[in-house]
Design the sequence.
């Protein structure tokens, strides 16, 4: 591979030397032939060669401009850039790239032969590899740019199309406005012509009536006066038309001002509506919180009533227990068994007159127990009667329960 590159490089060098020698011979040929030809002839040849070179350069520039125009035309038409100029540039770029790599490899090969350690050879290979990678990256970049170029052209075309559509819409609106204005002017002119026709007919009728009358003078003494009268009427109509147009412009300005005020009022209404919505939302949240608090208070009150009922039940049970205990502690003993005459069995019999008539056993009498139970039941019925009509959980109920220890 390196030998082929070296051979190509040698052929390129031979071609350059041969071309340089021919140019030198063509350029400095006058000096070798100076002894044979005269000096003016050499100047004419130099002048002719200069003109030929200028002509060649001008042709090359014209050819380049033509290629550029063809490429721009292809780009504007939406085609890929083609043509011999573009292909030649790509070919020349690849040839230059190959020549540069071959020259670099040959130079680095010569330099690496001088170094006996081999570091220069390794560095040379790395440099060549990096240069190839660089060319490859450049080729990829160029290919990517060529790939995205149609998209960029499409974006530009779309932007131009949108701009053109916007201009067209504006022109259509302006044209519609002008058409409306022309229609309005045409209607006004038609009305004015109709008025003139009516006036002319009326004038002709009056003139005929006056002509038929003997003693009536002619309507117009001269044609000039009639023309001036008609012109005055037309001017008056034109002034009326101008006044109407000014009134229309004033009304349009007023309508625009009212439209602006309407827009401002709508914005203010939207703001107020938003505030009202927020206030309603806050009110609903407050009502919801109040309902929650009310439910909590009602639960607390129901729990309190339940506890008070339990307290009443416990107090009644305690009262019953204490009453039973008191009755148990003060219970009246049962009368002893008697043998039929009121004496206990086995007791010595006494004569009836010897017994005390009012001899009773000690303890609480039965009538006292009955009276105590009756009084307690009466007090309970009195308490329950007093509680009728008092709502549960009210301050009156609370004071009533506190006063009676319930």
Sequence:
């Amino acid at each position: 591979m390196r030998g082929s590159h070296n051979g190509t490089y040698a052929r390129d060098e031979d071609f350059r030397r041969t071309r340089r020698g021919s140019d030198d011979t063509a350029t400095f040929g006058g000096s070798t032939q100076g002894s044979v030809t005269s000096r003016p002839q050499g100047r004419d040849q130099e002048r002719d060669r200069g003109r030929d070179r200028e002509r060649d350069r001008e042709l090359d520039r014209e050819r380049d401009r033509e290629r550029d125009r063809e490429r721009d035309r292809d780009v504007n038409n939406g085609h890929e850039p083609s043509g011999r100029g573009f292909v030649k540039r790509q070919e020349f770029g690849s040839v230059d790239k190959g020549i540069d790599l071959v020259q670099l490899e040959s130079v680095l090969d010569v330099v690496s032969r001088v170094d006996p350690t081999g570091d220069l050879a390794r560095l040379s290979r790395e440099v060549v590899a990096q240069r190839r990678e660089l060319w490859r990256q450049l080729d990829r970049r160029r290919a990517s740019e060529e790939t995205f170029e149609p998209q960029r052209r499409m974006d530009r075309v779309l932007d131009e199309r949108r701009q053109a559509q916007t201009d067209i819409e504006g022109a259509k609106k302006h044209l519609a406005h002008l058409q409306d204005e022309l229609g309005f002017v045409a209607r006004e002119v038609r009305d004015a012509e109709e008025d003139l026709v009516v006036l002319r007919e009326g004038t002709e009728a009056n003139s005929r009536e006056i002509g038929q009358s003997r003693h009536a003078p002619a309507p117009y003494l001269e044609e000039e006066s009639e023309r001036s009268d008609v012109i005055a009427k037309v001017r008056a109509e034109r002034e009326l038309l101008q006044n109407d147009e000014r009134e229309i412009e004033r009304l349009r300005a007023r309508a625009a001002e009212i439209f602006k005020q309407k827009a401002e009022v709508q914005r203010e209404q939207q703001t107020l509506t938003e505030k009202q919505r927020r206030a309603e939302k806050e009110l609903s949240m407050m009502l919801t919180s109040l309902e929650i608090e009310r439910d909590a208070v009602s639960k607390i009150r129901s729990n309190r009533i339940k506890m008070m009922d339990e307290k009443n039940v416990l107090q009644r049970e305690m009262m019953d227990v204490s009453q039973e205990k008191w009755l148990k502690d003060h219970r009246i003993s049962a009368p002893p068994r008697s043998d039929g005459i009121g004496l206990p069995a086995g007791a010595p019999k006494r004569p009836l007159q010897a017994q005390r008539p009012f001899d009773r056993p000690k303890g609480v009498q039965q009538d006292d127990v009955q009276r105590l139970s009756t009084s307690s039941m009466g007090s309970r019925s009195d308490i329950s009667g007093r509680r009728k009509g008092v709502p549960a959980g009210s301050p009156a109920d609370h004071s009533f329960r506190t006063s009676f220890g319930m």
